[in-house]
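WARN retry 2 of 3 for item q-0093 after timeout on previous attempt; input resubmitted unchanged.
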Amino acid sequence: MAVTKNALLRYRTLDECFSNPYKKFFLADLVRICSEKLTEYYGYDFSIEKRALQYDIAFMKSSAGYDAPIETIKDGKSSYYRYSDMTFSITKKELNPSELLSVKDALVMMSRMKGIPGFGWINEMQVQLESALNFRLSSKQIVAFEENEYLKGKDFLNQLYHYINEEFTLNLTYKPFTSDCSENFIVSPYYLKQYNNRWFLLGWNHNNSRQEIYPLDRIEFLESVQIQYIPTAIDFNEYFEDIIGVTYYEEKDVEEVVIEMTASIIPYVITKPLHGSQKVKDNILTLKLKLNYELESVILSFGEQMKVLQPVGLQGKIRNRLISAEKNY
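OK item q-0093 returned
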């Protein structure tokens, strides 16, 4: 269960109360103190219900929470709460085996970024974590990621990551594949996405007043400039749900694509879906998405094992590209 800032602040406040041996904290006291802490944090009146705080205490005591040694002491008609072990604190709690394994897994994944310029700090952090947690990662490589170490543009990843995070506007020198000349754009950068082993930057082009996408391997130079950043409200997780790849046409609608498949590729397509919308019935594959170049490339990669039935426009494009390809042989 994800822990919100609100909940984390309550847990830490309760932790301070339970570890204080000089004062008795009854439920009403805990409600008041937690409400005051949240009011101070958020800057407006914030009150906690008793039932919610009782759930917090139960969670802290559970193995899913902190295994906190919270005890209830009877005092007259009421009861107060404290730690039976006054040396305990949730801030001192050691990682359990499952959490430790998760940290190791995260370090393995982070080590993938070692080859990316600008992310050398990961090496130092890995050493510090291994020392602090008293473990060492195996030197034996057991996971291989598909990564093109010779890919141009990777040098910009670290810069772009920080520029996006800090909402800096950029002056971008970009050379399209279709031109021998470089172009300069003022861009508000929004998002970095990897597709087909290449990195792409999405951002708002101030010159053209539209959102565009730039392959990092076509960027020649970039720097921050003192021009007003134009923010976006786009949720990019949802943004890419309607397409395969990175090419997104605002003006296009989602269409239904129907494809006939040969029997040999049906298990492959079922186990490795082409898109989140896909449905397979017998030998018919159905997708609901926006048409783009990447979709055409995926269909063509299956060669004679796929046949587009609809829409007719896409069917014609695939046919023409296959005819053009056949002329090369």
